[in-house]
Amino acid sequence: MISSVLVYSSRGELVLNKFFKNSLKRSISDIFRVQVINNLDVRSPVLTLGSTTFHHIRSRHGDNLWLVTITRSNANSAAIWEFLYKLDAVMNAYRLDREEALKEEFMIVHEMLDIMLGGNGIPIDTELNSVIAQMSVNPVRNMGGLLDSPDGNDVLSSSSSPTSSAGELHFPKFLTKRSSSFLGQGDSTSDFYDNNKITWRPKGIIHKKDEVFLYVNERINILVSRDGSILKSYVDGTIDITTHLSGTPICRFGLNDSLGMQSEDEKKWLAQQQRHSRSDFGNKNFIPKAAAGSVLLEDCKFHECVSLDKFNRNHIIEFVPPDGSMELMKYHVRDNINLPFKVTPIVTHSTRDNEIDYRITLKSLFPGKLSAKDVVLHIPVPPSTVDCKISVSNGHCKFVPEENAMIWRFNKYNGLTENTLSAVTVSTSDTTQLNLQQWTRPPISLEFEVMMFSNSGLVVRYFTISGKDSKHRAVKWIKYISKAGSYEVRY
Questions:
Q1: 50, 179, 225, 244: which has the fewest Cβ within 10 Å?
Q2: Which domains does the chain have, with CATH numbers?
Q3: pTM, whole model, 2 decimals?
Q4: DSSP 336
Q5: Which letter, b or e, does each residue of 256-273 get, where b requires 16 or more Cβ atoms within 10 Å of its Cβ?
Q6: Which of helix, strand or coil describes residue 160?
């Protein structure tokens, strides 16, 4: 990802460089000096010359050093800039934000880069306390004070551990490889998370009413062939959460994924929850319709607050949430997809009047107690069409010439219902049969949104909140939202 890291003085002198790829020439540092540092008109934080890209920031501390990365691939710019700002924070903690100090202690920065980027130039650890815990030397502080954490607290000192006269800091005990990992190895919840590691949640949060809102958002993508067979189908889902919880709560929930259903730990927690609570959520009907017995999740991605070790071992999602809203998890499902709608098109070409006849049936497959909103069926017509004679059993349909399509809309579509559309196109006088035969027939597309329906069958089976700071019983709500991604039908 990152081929090289360069540090320049404010005057443009190269103070430090570290190369992760041998394909770069050492003289490449001169290019950045000429193109950016010496060019007063440059305002962009990224410069691309051929296949080489420079990402750069100015240090917010000390001598305002230039921190630069060089990449040769299509790298994630946001991730690189985040790394650069994290590097700036760690250098400031070691008082290496000045040119002279950096020249004297340049090996410390090399050690930082080895920890933060590994040997391949890929960011692997950028949390301040985690990097400091792995360093061979402790940081020193300037007379101006220490680096503050986002909540305003000093992240490098402890109230019970004063600094020495030499300016060195006495740190709280950090987790090491020999101790319980940050992700949790012990039975006590206090071993799962170190407060110094939880940089995403300030301490001392208090709410009058503790609430948790969990949203399972899914987008179904499907392509149906002319004969009705499914060519591809998959679901991209996210689990979003909004929390208003006091203290430092530890949240834990389980899904009906195929591996998690086999976990003994997960079964134990589910049995315990069923004994102590009638329902995990504020609404009684929290299990969505069309829920599968188990779901095979693929390509799971998590917010940094989630314990990956816990998920890998037991497929239990455990985390200390930030206060407010966030995207907790992403996932991908390919098997046993629940289709919410079935579209049956019959499209024929009338050779007599150069017309296209449409007979389309739209049937909802979700339970009758549910309903979909904002249902829109986009039906393409030939470019030579000037009007359409349309008849529908329900909803509203009109011809939109600028889109070369008929748009069939429903504000609300109940479950287990069927509606039909009949239409005939009116073409221009110069339209020939050959024009209609050569028409590519773009697929019919469908848009919709269904509440409390799971396209993948994924279910949140239980949700618990624990923690020594938790003093209030939280109200928990869950909502399943299924939408159309690329929902297309050929004809």
A1: 50
A2: 4-134 (3.30.450.60), 211-337+454-489 (2.60.40.1170), 341-451 (2.60.40.1170)
A3: 0.66
A4: S
A5: bbebbbebeebeebbeeb
A6: coil
